[in-house]
Amino acid sequence: MSEKIVKPAWLKRRIKNSGEVQATAALLQRLGLHSVCQGASCPNIGECFGNRTVTFMIMGDVCTRNCRFCAVSKGPVKPLDPEEPERLGQAAAELELAHVVITSVTRDDLEDGGASHFASVVEAVHRAAPSTTVELLIPDLKGDWGALKTILDSGPDIINHNLETIEPLYETVRPQADYFRSLELLRQSKLLAPVVHTKSGIMVGLGEEEGQVFALMDDLRKVDCDILTVGQYLRPTGEQREMSAYITPEQFLRYEKEAYRKGFRFVASGPFVRSSYHARDGMRALKNPSRREGLL
């Protein structure tokens, strides 16, 4: 049995159950929508729901893959809901979102990986909330770049696809994914739609070394990735992969400084950072680089 790692003080956070949290949860329930905030047991749910910010999860709440770090349910999936795009657009309008993040479970059962559904959702948000900028966190589509073009043609502002971890850990952390395919998705995004910004994120505390994280940053910059997020891996339940270490705030700051030095246009690096955490700040930084918070 491995030695238990004691959670440090900087990772202790009280979840606030404010009226806004309850109102946002009620809206999702009323419209029959899922959020990754709830499905993935995100530690920031109180803060984000309290600010009426949501990362929507489309195409159901059951995933066809079995990543070793994720708490999203696995098993048989349901058919796509053709009315989901319009309901999500309605939610974005009701919440008066300036920036919306939309992700999905991985649907390897679908011929296009759900690309056409993603496109329908983006178009619905544009109709219902035309001033809202749209960020998509998409799966790897099994390397189908035609499907990727379908998504890009719908007009998102940011395409996010997470590497999640360093390449040597893929076999044990993401056995159904491929590090180089994920990098190629980001490269193809820039080739197919140069005006769409690209973003990726990783978790640390899975057994990686600092130099390996720096090498991953280099790989992302080679495909012209604009935004990077770095956050602490926290084991959602006893069924997921064990963590190897709690990363200190000082180490997160080193990652942030190095990422900016390597040329990323916006970086969020910290214990509570998740892929969509403070995503609106990244959009603002892309529009106005002088506002970025990073240290060079």
Low-confidence stretches: none
Count of discrete structural domains: 1
Quickly name the level 1 CATH class.
Alpha Beta
Helix fraction by DSSP (H/I, runs of at least 4): 25-40%
- Residue-averaged pLDDT, rounded? 86
How many strands, what sense, and barrel or not for the largest sheet?
Answer: 8 strands, mixed
Give the spatial strand order of the biggest sheet.
1-2-5-6-7-8-9-10
* Structure annotation, total helices: 11
CATH topology: TIM Barrel
Counting DSSP E segments of at least 2 residues, the number of strands comes to 10
Element order, helices and strands? HEHHEEEHEHEHEHHEHEHEH
Strand content: 5-15%
Structural class: alpha/beta
Instruction: Give the CATH architecture.
Output: Alpha-Beta Barrel
What is Rg? 18 Å
- The CATH superfamily title: Aldolase class I
Query: Roughly how many Å apart are the termini?
Result: 42 Å
What is the approximate shape?
A: globular
